[in-house]
Write a structure and sequence with these properties.
This protein is α/β, with parallel strands linked by helices. It is 28% helix and 22% strand.
Length: 292
């Protein structure tokens, strides 16, 4: 093992986990039991079905570049890895170290927010939007920016957290929870995706582990009482146990969802009027209005 190279690796606050060969490894700073490995395996299983050969790929929110390098290894002709270092607690150094150690040709732009993607003025064959949407303050605007990076045959691959226990079109915003600021029901997120002129091709879920233990008779009795009272707040409070430190949990138990989408152009019935954020360019009813 090259001790000096490992020293450089160890100086980085890694989010992703890498094996660079020759005994050189990047160990993530997040806890090993945080579930990330299971999520990464879930994502990799789906990306493994995608043909990256000779494709131009955009990786949004690339962080250490794990999926950028994955696409390159799978034969991508060009990979542009974008991130916003002002939103990155690791200061964005890992991807540069990894690029050097891998001998990679991945292009890196770390001053591009998801809200600024249209400024790239480029179209990509494959767009990776993995582990990002649940950190957004304005997910619809972000999806519109992604739409502007697509040509008619683009493939957009999205992955993130959803909450199946919410109402069909509900979503939670909790900007104090930096693990998950935006948590939609799957159907609610699908509606946002469709409103941004994307069609769903396929979707899959990563199921969470079963909750431990059995619910006791006291819990059942309290639940029956809240049901008889017709108290939705009481039912929800009992359905979502407190955090380990005793703080109330804000209905954020979630599942991971992987979406495969294609952009479309035509009439989008979700928009009764001219859509915002430049999306009118993709709707036949408004193209003359926008001059597109």
């Amino acid at each position: 093992m090259d001790a000096s190279a490992q020293h450089r690796i160890d100086a980085v606050s890694w989010y992703h986990e890498f094996d660079f060969g020759n005994g050189l490894r990047a160990i993530p700073k997040t806890p090993v039991d945080s579930g990330h490995r299971r999520i990464w395996a879930f994502i990799e299983g789906h990306l493994g079905l995608i043909d990256f050969r000779d494709k131009h790929v955009l990786d949004i929110g690339c962080w250490d570049g794990y999926w950028s390098f994955f696409a390159e290894r799978r034969g991508a002709k060009r990979v542009l890895a974008t991130d916003d270092c002002s939103q990155n607690w690791a200061e964005g150094q890992g991807i540069h170290v990894a690029k050097e150690l891998f001998g990679s040709s991945v292009e890196i732009k770390q001053d591009v927010s998801v809200y600024q993607l249209a400024a790239l003025q480029e179209k990509f064959d494959i767009v990776l939007f993995l582990g990002v949407w649940y950190h957004l303050f304005d997910p619809f605007y972000a999806l519109a920016q992604i739409r502007h990076c697509c040509h008619p045959n683009s493939l957009v691959l999205m992955e993130g957290s959803v909450a199946t226990e919410l109402g069909s079109q509900e979503a939670l915003f909790n900007f104090t929870d930096h693990n998950c600021e935006f948590l939609p029901h799957p159907d609610g997120f699908r509606q946002l995706v469709n409103a941004a002129y994307f069609s769903e091709v396929a979707s899959k879920f990563l199921d969470p582990p079963e909750p431990p233990g059995r619910l006791g008779w006291r819990w059942r009795l309290r639940m029956c009482r809240e049901v008889l009272r017709g108290s939705r707040d009481g039912i929800r409070a009992l359905a979502t146990p407190p955090m380990p430190d005793g703080r109330p949990r804000l209905r954020t138990a979630n599942r991971r969802m992987f979406l495969v989408c294609n952009p479309f152009q035509g009439v989008n019935e979700l928009h009764a009027y001219r859509p915002p954020f430049g999306l009118a360019a993709y709707d036949d009813r408004f193209r003359d209005v926008t001059g597109a």
